[in-house]
């Protein structure tokens, strides 16, 4: 977890739409609206010291903040009263403060950084909105985020803008594994990579070829396919542009290494049916690891396709249904007729799996509490099975 995740006051700032940055042990708040000496609304930066116990924030060591920009004024053109001095302070890398503000909320030292920062932003923002009613700290351009701020390379403004930080926080689990990075697994990665899971572990021993690139999200370049990299390396590099902590494991999960999955908080099984899947499922059950198994059966009917897309969930409280829902039959011997997959159904299979995982985490309401779902393509029918109401 990041420092922001471990610090409720910083997390609340992010939830309220503040553009927060941690740089050189200082707390920076970008896009703070204020009024300059010409009675124009501008946007500056607050710089505050940041006190921690190495794990999370503690009470602020100082109540002041420094302003990067121009000296703040009120809407009538007067310098605001909480300016302590106008001494310049150079923080390096082009970050130069023009003045220091000193104001204690209610005359008392702020109890945390949320109270400290929101108080100053509110003071300056009131004057700014007297001139421009739309002036706010929440509309800001994309900025790179540090590892202390977020698992993402840039802040998830979509969550804060929607007011869903508390809900999304339920997805901040430590480790999630995706076993099998084919069509379905790669789409699972695409969806889970956009959640605040701390570590994503990818397991697959196959390489990237044209046939699997056509069933994966995004658009693999000709050069990427031509060099046939391990799929896990290709996808880890691709999604690492977006987020941190993607761990590629270019191996097939078997009896010899399945114990690596026991450290996971959740596992997605998106590999072909066969004896190795049975081993994985049995060992996950023994160690009470929650998982979702994805399955797809598509066959030809005349000159069209028909089939079923399945998602089966196993938790420590509900494993007894697995043998009657998960197939371990190896279809590789008749692959031309049976092992058919299409990108749209791979994507649907992944979406069904991730929706169920989010229900498991409490992100979505789950009134049915099903442990098996099947979508029949020809009838356009979704059936819930193994219901625990």
What does this molecule look like?
With 389 residues, this protein is of the alpha+beta class. 28% of the residues lie in helices and 24% in strands. The protein is built from 13 helices and 16 strands. The protein has helices spanning 3-6, 8-15, 113-131, 157-162, 165-168, 183-192, 210-213, 222-226, 231-239, 275-286, 322-325, 335-338, 343-361; strands at 19-23, 26-35, 41-49, 65-68, 83-85, 89-92, 95-97, 99-101, 175-179, 199-203, 246-249, 266-269, 291-301, 304-314, 370-376, 381-387. The strands form 3 sheets. It has an 8-stranded mixed beta sheet with strand order 11-10-9-12-13-14-15-16, sandwiched between helices. It has a 6-stranded antiparallel beta sheet with strand order 1-2-3-4-8-5, covered by helices on one side. A hairpin with a 4-residue loop joins strand 15 and strand 16 (381-387). Helix 2 (8-15) packs parallel to helix 3 (113-131) and helix 6 (183-192) packs across helix 13. The longest helix has 19 residues, at 113-131. It is elongated and about 80 Å long.
